[in-house]
């Protein structure tokens, strides 16, 4: 049962942390700080409207109270003066015969009281039962401190395990567990900034104007956008249905495309063959040019030799004519 109550109180502390966000977001920092410093457990009570830590403190002192308390008329009068119980509750206790039954009835009434009953009971017991008053006061302080620590741990978990991974991703820097009211307020400011970033990112990706949807919940905006997208998709489906080509025509078109591809491949092969033939002809042409050039040079040399021979013949003829 204790574990169940601890889990319930942890959930409640996380809820309180989210409620503090709005004070911080609206720049009401003094109010938020006062809330954290004066009553860190405000608006966080169990099903019986008593603060969780008050109920825990009473349970821890229940054995001592059952053992030592004697709910007689003077004690009940003192409790009435201290606004711990009222007259009808006092009469109900007095109707019990045995002391233990009276104590059990008193404990049942205490557990049904509203918040603040622990402090009033501590003050009422100081005169006649100072040891119980001191014991209850110690347990009260201990449980309240523990509850504050649970609240800070819950607030840190909200940031590190829920909001931060959702906004910044799993590798985001973790927020340390607050140990003071100032650090708690800073943690609340971090939550406010993360939520504001998350809101802006969603509005930007959805393509909406934040001013136009400032009074709408994000889930409503998402629902409207999804509805618009569905309508757009339906319209596109209708257009595609109207433009749909009959199956036979599609087969003919596919066959024509295949034929065109085959013709293109064949033409590509023919072009390669022609390119190869052109390259061969160019090579043959180059060889013929080289042969022509060689023949031209040979002809020139022959002409030169003929000219020399003719010159020599003329000189010989001339000499012959002189001797003659």
Automatic annotation (TrEMBL):
> Matching PROSITE patterns, A to Z?
CARD (PS50209)
Stored Gene3D superfamilies: Death Domain, Fas
SUPFAM superfamilies, alphabetized: DEATH domain (SSF47986)
**Which BP terms does GO give this entry?**
regulation of apoptotic process
Q: Does the keyword Coiled coil apply?
A: yes
Q: Which residues form a coiled coil?
A: 219-298
Q: Show the InterPro entries listed in the entry.
A: CARD, DEATH-like_dom_sf
Coiled coil as UniProt keyword: yes
The segment(s) forming the CARD domain are 50-126
This protein's UniProt keywords: Coiled coil
Q: What is the name of this protein?
A: CARD domain-containing protein
Origin species, per record, is Mytilus edulis
């Amino acid at each position: 049962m204790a574990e169940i109550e601890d889990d319930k109180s942890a959930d409640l502390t996380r809820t309180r942390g989210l409620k503090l966000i709005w004070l911080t977001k609206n720049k009401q920092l003094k109010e938020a700080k006062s809330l954290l410093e004066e009553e860190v457990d405000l608006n966080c009570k169990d099903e019986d409207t008593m603060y969780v830590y008050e109920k825990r403190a009473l349970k821890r002192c229940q054995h001592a109270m059952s053992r030592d308390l004697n709910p007689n008329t003077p004690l009940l009068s003192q409790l009435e003066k201290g606004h711990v119980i009222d007259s009808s509750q006092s009469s109900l206790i007095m109707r019990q015969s045995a002391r233990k039954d009276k104590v059990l009835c008193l404990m049942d009434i205490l557990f049904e009281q509203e918040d603040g009953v622990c402090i009033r009971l501590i003050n009422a017991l100081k005169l006649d039962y100072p040891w119980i008053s001191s014991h209850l006061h110690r347990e009260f302080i201990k449980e309240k401190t523990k509850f504050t620590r649970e609240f800070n741990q819950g607030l840190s978990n909200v940031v590190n395990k829920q909001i931060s991974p959702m906004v910044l991703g799993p590798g985001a820097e973790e927020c340390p567990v607050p140990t003071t009211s100032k650090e708690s307020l800073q943690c609340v400011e971090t939550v406010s900034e993360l939520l504001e970033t998350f809101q802006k990112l969603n509005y930007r990706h959805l393509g909406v104007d934040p001013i136009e949807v400032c009074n709408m919940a994000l889930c409503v905006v998402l629902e409207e956008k999804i509805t618009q997208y569905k309508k757009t998709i339906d319209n596109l489906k209708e257009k595609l249905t109207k433009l749909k080509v009959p199956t036979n025509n599609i087969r003919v078109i596919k066959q024509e495309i295949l034929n065109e591809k085959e013709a293109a491949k064949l033409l590509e092969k023919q072009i390669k063959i022609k390119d190869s033939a052109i390259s061969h002809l160019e090579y043959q042409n180059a060889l013929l040019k080289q042969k022509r050039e060689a023949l031209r040079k040979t002809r020139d040399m022959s002409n030169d030799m003929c000219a020399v021979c003719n010159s020599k013949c003329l000189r010989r003829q001339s000499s012959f004519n002189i001797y003659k």
